[in-house]
């Protein structure tokens, strides 16, 4: 789950993390309210270490409020 500032381009930045790490997005649920948004993303990963790398990159994105891994 990624909680972020609701601004243009943030969803593109989030999806770019998955593209750059060769992670397949199989579903997304986006919701916004005022200045804040969140997206729940269902992904398929090839290797376990992709999880840590992708999560750190999501946390480092400008506009990120919080990023969490849910199982």
TrEMBL record:
PROSITE patterns: ACT. Keywords: Oxidoreductase. SUPFAM superfamilies: ACT-like. Gene3D superfamilies: 3.30.70.260. It comes from the Bacteria. Residues 1-71 form the ACT domain. Its EC number is 1.1.1.95. The keyword Kinase does not apply. GO terms for molecular function: phosphoglycerate dehydrogenase activity. This is D-3-phosphoglycerate dehydrogenase. It comes from Providencia rettgeri. The gene is serA_2.
